[in-house]
Amino acid sequence: MSSDTTTPQVNAEEREIDPIRVELLSTEMPVHQLAKRGDEPIRILKRGTDGRVKLQWRVDYSATVGHPGQLAYHLDTWVIKRRLSELRRPYPRLVRIGDLREIARELKHGGDTNSVRRAFEQNAAT
């Protein structure tokens, strides 16, 4: 018995998936609480002219490690992004950022490795 249904042949190019690059948007949106006082939540809601939500952004943080604050922001922008921008493509699987003392000195935070560790945890938990 033969089947009349035929499945069209799809070439490899048509089967490739074009992933949505969420990380591109996330690098442009605020994550860090930069105010010295207050516990203001980070929320952005943009609506189009028709009233429909076009963009919604909310930062949830871990209650155990707290909001990523100024030190976490400096760690992210001055240390991690700088290290990544110095690399050549293709990026290696692991990137050496430095030990906690080196990073604390680079951030002009003395030898306070506990604060730097906490900033890493805040960035990772957000």
Question: What does this protein structure show overall?
Answer:
The protein contains five helices and two strands. With 126 residues, it is mainly alpha-helical. Strand 1 and strand 2 form a beta hairpin.
Instruction: Spell out the helices and strands N to C.
Output: HHEEHHH
Can you tell me the residue ranges where pLDDT is under 50 for at least 5 consecutive residues? Answer: none
Radius of gyration: 22 Å
CA(first)-CA(last) distance:
59 Å
Count of DSSP helices? 5
Number of strands: 2
Strand order of the largest sheet: 1-2
Question: How big a fraction of the residues is strand?
Answer: 5-15%
- Arithmetic mean pLDDT: 80
Q: What does the main sheet amount to?
A: 2 strands, antiparallel
Query: Helicity, in percent?
Result: 25-40%
Subunit arrangement of the protein: single chain
How many domains is the backbone divided into? 1
Indicate the structural class: mainly alpha
Categorize the overall geometry: globular
